[in-house]
Amino acid sequence: MANNTPNILLIHCHDLGQYLGCYGQDVDTPNIDALANEGVLFENHYATAPQCSPSRGSLMTGRYPHVNGLMGLAHEDWDLHPNEQTLPEYLNQSGYSTHLFGLQHVTDNLDRLGYKHIHSGGSLSPAVSPAIHEINRARDIADTIDVFFEKDTFEEPFFASIGFFETHRRQNNGLYGFVDAEYEAADPSEVEPLAYLPDKQGIREDIAAMHGMIRAIDDAVGTITIALEAAQLADETLVIFTTEHGIAFPRAKGTCYDTGIEAALVMRYPDVIDSGQRCDELVSNVDVLPTLLNLLGEDVPETIEGQSFLPLLTEEVYYPRDNLFAEMTWHDTYNPMRAIRTNQYKYIRNFWHLPLIYFTDDILKSKAGREVHEQLRSGRRPYEELYDLEEDPYEQTNLVNDPQYEHVRDQLRGRLVRWMRNTSDPLLEGPVPPADYDELLPQI
């Protein structure tokens, strides 16, 4: 098979951010670390949104959430616009056999995604049904992939999206956590606290429980890579491991701070991607689709808003991003914000009267959330935020009114507004109604 038509495995999971050993976190992830050592790890990869469906929609379309229509969760009536083209559809046109294994959270209409073959799972999210987590466990999906390769029934080139429900919190007796007999938690006294949160017992217990789910993800990645090697396909397969947004803890998921929009991105493709690379250039998950099209030698449509980073991997001339954008509009409530990040600064614009820190419902009703609820939610969020990421990597000190940073604030504010105008962001016209507004209207 020619190098420009690799098989492609896209492995993804919930709510993990960059909480992996290869990203410097105190958690054992030997199989994902091995992928990184054999390929490339992107240290500054960020999602377009700090929540599931909008981020995944950008990965699948190469376009921002407010552009492709997925401004909230897919199971909350938000969906891609009818004319949006997805990654599987692009790859179908390039002669790929496209497969979906396990979780997706882009639409409740599987036909809309364009996969030729839908295997186990294919459901939305553990938030939709109590039984879904049983369908999309990493272990079970990995075993399905193992059988898929063992039976040798696939057609090449193939693309397989492989989605795990871990590390999504689960509800048990009104509390959302990571505790499950399926997973072995770490010792809370031995985990490292999160640098952006106080060191409290409830937070430690949640971190320790999350470690058990992370080990399940890593074991599944190991099962899949071993199966790939056993099928003698490893050398001609691009393996991508990525995550959708930051971990499900306060001041992370649901915020546009780095801890909310950071996402892992590891890629391995022997003989094409040199092993042991660590790229520190700014990369957005909106860039993944155009990169894959570029790799296949396909034209990238002008409607795609991401930019290909393939030259980074092939040592060709690359014009790096000088900024990237992130956004949030709806989740379990209205939380409109837009953000721009450069290598040094972060500017966030909040468009509503909001609590100081937004907690998604699963975080609000968690041990970690209860520990810091009063501290982080009290008070009103400022309409503008500015952070110097070199001096303040956890975005604790808002510099928006500091005279020394006035020029930075004005410059980034201008860039953000121009981006919103260029992409016809509906927030510029006022509040964005919920997706089911037409159904609610008769009740108002």
UniProtKB/TrEMBL annotation:
Assigned keywords, A-Z: Hydrolase
InterPro entries: Alkaline_phosphatase_core_sf (IPR017850), Sulfatase (IPR050738), Sulfatase_N (IPR000917)
Domain Sulfatase N-terminal: 6-297
Pfam families assigned to the protein according to its UniProt record, in alphabetical order: Sulfatase
Leader sequence segment: none
Keyword rRNA-binding: no
GO molecular function: arylsulfatase activity
Sequence similarity: Belongs to the sulfatase family.
Name under which the protein is recorded: Sulfatase
UniProt source species: Halocatena pleomorpha
Phylogenetic placement of the source organism: Archaea, Methanobacteriati, Methanobacteriota, Stenosarchaea group, Halobacteria
